[in-house]
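User: Hello, can you help with two protein structures?

Assistant: Certainly.
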Amino acid sequence: MDARTATPLVVTIAGHAVVAAIVDLDGTMVDTLGDLHAAANATMRLLKLPDLSREDVEHRIGKGSEYLVLQCLRLHLPDDQAQALYPQAIELYLQEYTQLNGQFADPFPGVPEGVAALKQAGLRLACATNKPTELARELLQMKGLLQYFEIVNGGDAFPRKKPDPMPLLETCKQLGLPPAQVLMIGDSQNDALAARAAGCPVALVTYGYNHGEPIRTANADAFADRIGDLLAR
């Protein structure tokens, strides 16, 4: 009997009875800032542009590679020049990032244990990230996390990315569950906005990126210092 036909196990988190969870990747499960910073600076050097600080990159994480690259170009160039250089820049960035994927990244404290605890509690797990799907799967495998997820959807899986609700709605369809029964676990306002628009309850971890803004100002049902802490809520 597979997960679709078995009687679902219901877990109550933050006052919501849920059967599954969709978990973000960058900033929620894995600290990828080192990879992203290295790839962005490698790209800037190839384009003969100045290096970026870690904060420059951190504050632009969360809306996909395309957004990150264009915003980084805009730090150094007027908008028209940034737009003109963008096609070359995104191609270079993806080449660099593919080579660096996972080299300067590690799971946040408590993530392997927390994800395992969610699975053991009976939740079905999916990952929805704005990172390209192949790179997301590779990173999860590298860090020992892929085994917990029955679905991995990256930013290239659907026409629109978070904070648009489409990735969550489509992932819920793949799970065969209504959004109200699927918890979104993320680290940023983008995740909260996508979840609210999709009709999913949402919990946010407190250690992620969130564009440099305080995470507790986001509209979420719960906040947690570690993913596993959500099971006590």
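That covers the first. Now for the second protein you mentioned:
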Amino acid sequence: MQSNRKVVFFYAMKRILTTAIALLFVASAFAQGSDDAYRFSQTFYQGTAKALGMGNALGAVGGDMTAICINPAGMGLYRSDEITFSLDLLDNLHHSSYYGETANANKFRLTLPNFGYVNAKQRSNYRKLRFTQFGIGLTRTNDFNLHTYAKGTNPTSSRIDNYLQQIDGLSPTDIENCFPMDIYPAWETYLIDIFQDSIGDYYSSPVPQGGIRQSQENAFKGRSEEWTFAGSMNFSERFFIGASVGLQHVKRVGTRTFEESMPEDESAHVGTDFNQWSYTEEISTKGMGLNVKLGFIYHANRWLRLGAAFHSPTLYKFDESWQTETESQINWITRKYISPESHYEYNFISPLKAMGSLAFVIGQQGLVSLDAEYTNFGAARFKEAISDMDNEDVHIYYNSVNANIKANYSHTLNFRLGTEWRLQSCYLRLGAGYYGSPYGIGKTDGSTKKVAVGIGLPVSEITTFDFAYELTYRKDEFNLYDAGYLEINPITQRQFKSNFAVTLKMRF
């Protein structure tokens, strides 16, 4: 009986070890994580200059192409055809602090955030259905253009320490199978090697455990944008309903480079052959998605407007490629290893959004509007592609990632406030926005704050130029790697994004 128990225990432990190694391999072969779930679910509209100048608080206001993307009922206020075209100039500045050292990096970008056309048809002057509209528009929903840089001297650990923790107990063959993109390249470039003492074989590294210079640089470009196909109806100039189908397009391409090196102080080099090493990831993500939006606006009286909208989850299909390059310099000998390029497909479901809006009209001179938006980032989900449906290891991996998303992210609220005032023939606009932390209501980590100012200048009966400036502030903290018991200080990163926008609007 005892012999049978040993056999059962042996096979059980073998199955657990095999499953664990398979999961490590799948995790190393795929780049998606909880950060991507938030990145591809968050929405920061970059449409017309009018919307930008009012903080995108147009859920109960309407009459604008960006408003159609927020609440399709807003198109119901159109009584004539309209074409809009916008340009943005972005300056994205990141200020990073790591172990007492600061570094700045920024990126300029000229973008085309908006194009739209609305066709309005009058149905009656007396019946309840007064106008119907059809529109098509392109609106940028997020911007992935950034350049960040952080540097500092870590006194306690190296990224190699994290590698050593992960491969403890594995054979060199297991390292190649389980970590082909990161740890195996470190093995091939002699950043990790096998040593022997009286107890037995163990992994070690010539990279010192702390007291080394570290830096990380991110350089990405890309965006998410939505082609919106919308229809709306105007009932008695008081009740407006709309619906739209949104075709999402996502593109994000760039590199992330991590480096470690010995300090310039010559005394730090005594007793070590290590000089420096770097790890560069090249990532390309492209995807298409589909969603549906429904909304209404109700003019309760001359001074109060109410609005509500529902955005369905967006169903995405992504195609991603990932390749890494590891380079070491030990005893002034340079070695380089480039991993095989990894290609894979996967599906992603972003969380739904629900929004309520109020607008107060103040005579013929101005209005004040407020949007409140609810979403749950913890409901985002990755799913395997159709071709991987029968791959149990891939299924286990995505279950693990989704569990991590649910554990880390939660419900949040976004608020947008805007106002517009008529000054003779011009329009002055002010806006502000607070986008809550993805980690839950009441938390501040990862929250985003926005302020904006804009002006509208009619140049003819059919043509208007709108101008706007928006400033975005965001603070994040993150670790370069998991150092375990050695611990590591987080990088504190502050983002200051300036957005200068101009829109040409023509009515006919």
